[in-house]
Structures are given as C-alpha cells and as structure tokens.
Amino acid sequence: MQRRELFRLLGAGAALPVFDSNLLAMFQAAQPKSGYTLRTLNPRQNATLLIMTDLIIPETDTPGAKAARVNEFIDLILTEWAHEDERNRFMAGFDEVDKLSNALFAKDFVDATPIQQHAVVTELDQRLAVQREAERNSPYVRRRRYSQLSESFFGSLKYMTLYGYYTSEIGFTKELGKEIIPGAYHGCNPLISPAASKV
Fold first, then answer.
1. Is residue 128 exposed (0-12), middle (13-18) or buried (19+ Cβ within 10 Å)?
2. Among 6, 15, 44, 62, which is 20 to 30 Å from 165 by CA?
3. How far, CA to CA in Å, does 41 sit from each of 57, 73, 102?
4. Is 102 helix (H, G, I), strand (E, B) or coil?
5. What is the Cα–Cα distance from 35 to 48, expressed in whole angstroms?
6. What pTM was estimated for this model as a whole?
C-alpha cells in the first residue's frame, strides 16, 4: 500500500465501524509483525504512549490498546510512513505532555499516579475538542489533507490509536466482532471479455 493511500484511508474516520475484510487486509501492511522492535520511540516515550493509548481504549470485557500492540503500530507509522516533519511534530508532543503533567502535578507523566495520568489525558482531550470546534466554526481554516498527522499531538495520537486498534486482529475480531475472511479467489479471468472479442 502506498503512503498516500494509507493516509487517505486513515482520514476517513467514519469508516471505522464498517471495515470489511478486504479493507482490513489493506491495513495489514501497516500492522507490526510479531517480535517487532521499536525504531523511533525511546523507552520513556513508549511508556508514555502505552499509558495514553490504554486510557483511550482501556481493557474492558475485550482487550484494550495495550493488548493490540497499538504502541508498536504507532512506532511503525512514525518510522516507515510519516514524513520527517510529521514525525518531528509528533515526537515534540511528548515534551508537551510532560510540561502539562508538571504544571498540574509537579511530575512527568509516567511518574504520575493513574488518577493524575487520567486527568492529564482528559485535559488534552478537552483542549482538542475546543480546538476542533474553533476550526469548525472558522471560515479561514482550510481542511487539512491528512489531518491525522498534521494536527495536535493528542489529535494525531487519537487517530492512530483508533486505527491501530480497530485494524488489529484483536480490535477487528473481538471488539467489532467481525471475521477475517480472505477475499474471493477468481482464478484466471480472461483479459478480454467475450462481448469485446466479437467486435
């Protein structure tokens, strides 16, 4: 799958609940393989990401983002699919998370208590909602082509968390309750239709 096609599909947020098996197969190229090693995130960033994605999609009666290895999906997107400016903008967001956590609780995000971490993520989510509402009401804001990696850190994180989760085997089969069925095999189809050969 080409980068442009991946981001076009990622931009279609409304498509999440109606993913079919063929669309899931397209996303498998962007899912990390078993034994994946992080290449962009350092251990502290990864720890931050694990906590934040787990707060966005926690484990309930179905596995959450951590079990679906969403952190690895995000690392793969940042490493192989994102442009350098997109990657740098996203990576700078980890410092912003720690800055907010320190302003609220005088400690970095990973060192905060679970209740404090939840409060930080809630604050980021509220800020994102205010930002999106302002953009929606502004006649001067042009629609971003690939908004999932060109908006705020938390906005990009939410996009990638949702797609990483719902296109994983866990999210697709256990959360959405769909079966992964390979596409139909059509064998050797003629290159020219019978009707066209009579012309």
1. middle
2. 44
3. 20, 11, 21
4. helix
5. 20
6. 0.73
Retrieve residue 192's tokens.
Answer: 């020219």
The Cα–Cα gap between 66 and 186 comes to 38
Q: 85-95: buried (b, 16+ CB within 10 Å) or exposed (e) per residue?
A: ebbebbbebbe
- Rounded distance, CA 111 to CA 101, Å? 9
Q: Each residue of 19-45: b (16+ CB within 10 Å) or e?
A: beeeebeebeebbbeeeeebebbeeeb
Amino acid letter, residue 167: T
* Boundaries of every domain in the chain: 3-182
- Side chain identity, residue 85: D
CA dist list (Å): 106 to 102, 103, 145: 4, 6, 37
Residue 124: count other Cβ atoms within 10 Å of its Cβ.
22
